[in-house]
Specification:
The complex is a heterodimer. Helices cover 67% and strands 0% of the residues of chain A. By secondary structure, chain A is mainly alpha-helical. By secondary structure, chain B is mainly α. In chain B, strands 1-2-3 form a three-stranded antiparallel beta sheet. Chain B is globular and about 85 Å long. The chains are: A mainly alpha, B mainly alpha.
Chain lengths: 58, 345
């Protein structure tokens, strides 16, 4: 009986830690997407490439 | 094109590829807002290292490492018989690795962002969505010099009948052909999964008796393209100019790979001095023709050759002759001349 309770408590602890961990991970701000989902900002930062001389491709 | 860097926010929650954040594939520093620091150590094309995709798509990545789109070895196979052993070594070092190999496609070039051709890229195929296919943006961009516009009729010739019916590249060229099957084939002609007209159009299923007879009579002697290529197609040195003079056209002659078969030929861009800048004279240049059999992508059901026997057997229109051959070409070109027999009454 005691073993069963210990197992249940341990299982709940692991479950809570996993869920909390996921939430924390998901909440971590990803700054890449702040810029790369901003159309106007990307437009303002973009510099057109200088094109090299090249043959056509098949 | 700045759109090549704009990611669709709505994708981020939907697609499992984004679950672990940008840095899983692109590296860099996702905790920084400043451009320089954020991009430090960033990989522009993570799939250049196939192991990036191979983490999840293990078998596809392993097979793809040996596929022709990745190895580009077909370009070496096509030209190597012109070289001596020493020339081949120079070619591998100076040309193949530095030039031909730069054309290889990685996973992302077809599934995320089109490969740059001549410095120009179409950018993200669909705002960083991982697409299964989008031939008009991916295949068409690398193969836009001749094959794709030939298929759509954008050269001014007739569009391919399959295009008119709504078919695109991958309706015939299946994914196994691109991803590979784990065998390092040396040429597209060795690939068992390559398309064959007869897979959909087997002999004996023709609606008209006269068509059945025509197919039976020419079986093993004329390729499907030989009769069903609809119009003039682009020959390689129309673009790689300066080497020889040619205009878009249809060229009929013996297949260099099977001289019993009459087929459509395409002038290839390798001429006598192509590799001179790399110090390669091509000792065996004359042993290999300047024309290859070509699967012209401008198929029509009815052409002047399917309508009447005289088009080939009397008029001999579009057949390769000594007079129409490129000047200063390989001696092997003469082996491709085919003179159709007159029909006995």
């Amino acid at each position: 009986m005691k073993n069963r309770r210990t197992f249940l408590l341990a299982f709940l602890a692991v479950l809570i830690a996993a869920l909390y961990g996921t939430a924390v991970f998901a909440a971590t701000p990803n700054k890449c997407i702040q810029c790369h989902t901003n159309d106007a900002l990307m437009k303002s930062l973009h510099k057109p490439p200088v094109l090299p001389k090249s043959d056509g491709e098949g | 094109m700045y759109k090549g860097y704009v990611v669709d926010k709505a994708l981020l929650d939907k697609d499992p590829h984004f679950k672990a954040g940008c840095v899983l594939c692109h590296a860099g520093n996702d905790g920084e807002l400043g451009k320089e620091k954020a991009h430090l150590g960033m990989l522009k094309k993570p799939s250049d290292n196939l192991r990036s995709c191979g983490v999840c798509h293990k078998k596809v990545a392993a097979n793809y490492a040996k596929s022709l789109h990745y190895t580009t070895i077909g370009q070496r196979t096509g030209v190597m018989s012109r070289f001596s052993a020493a020339e081949l070594k120079t070619f591998d070092e100076k040309v193949f690795e530095k030039s031909c190999r730069s054309c290889h496609a990685s996973c992302g070039d077809c599934h995320v962002k089109g490969a740059p051709v001549g410095g120009i890229s179409i950018g993200l195929v669909a705002k960083h969505k991982f697409v299964k296919k989008d031939e008009g943006k991916t295949c068409a961009f690398c193969h836009g010099g001749r094959v794709y516009p030939e298929y759509t009729g954008d050269y001014g010739g007739a569009p391919d009948v399959h295009y008119q019916k709504g078919m695109l590249c991958m309706d015939c060229h299946k994914k196994e052909e691109f991803h590979g099957d784990g065998t390092a084939y040396k040429s597209k002609n060795e690939i068992p999964q390559r398309p064959a007209c007869k897979s959909c159009h087997p002999n004996g299923k023709e609606a008209k008796m006269e068509t059945q007879v025509a197919h039976r009579q020419h079986e093993g002697k004329v390729s499907c393209y030989g009769c069903h290529s609809g119009s003039a197609y682009r020959n390689c040195n129309d673009c790689h100019g300066g080497h020889a003079a040619a205009s878009p056209g249809m060229i009929l002659g013996r297949s260099p790979r099977d001289k019993k078969v009459l087929t459509t030929l395409r002038l290839i861009p390798t001429v006598r001095d192509t590799f001179a800048p790399a110090g390669i004279k091509m000792e065996h240049f004359d042993a290999v023709p300047n024309y290859w059999d070509t699967p012209a992508h401008n198929i029509k059901k009815r052409t002047d050759r399917t309508r009447k026997c005289d088009a080939c057997h009397v008029d001999r229109k579009n057949f390769l002759t000594k007079e129409t051959m490129i000047k200063n070409g390989a001696k092997a070109n003469e082996d491709l001349i085919f003179v159709p027999k007159a029909i006995k009454n």
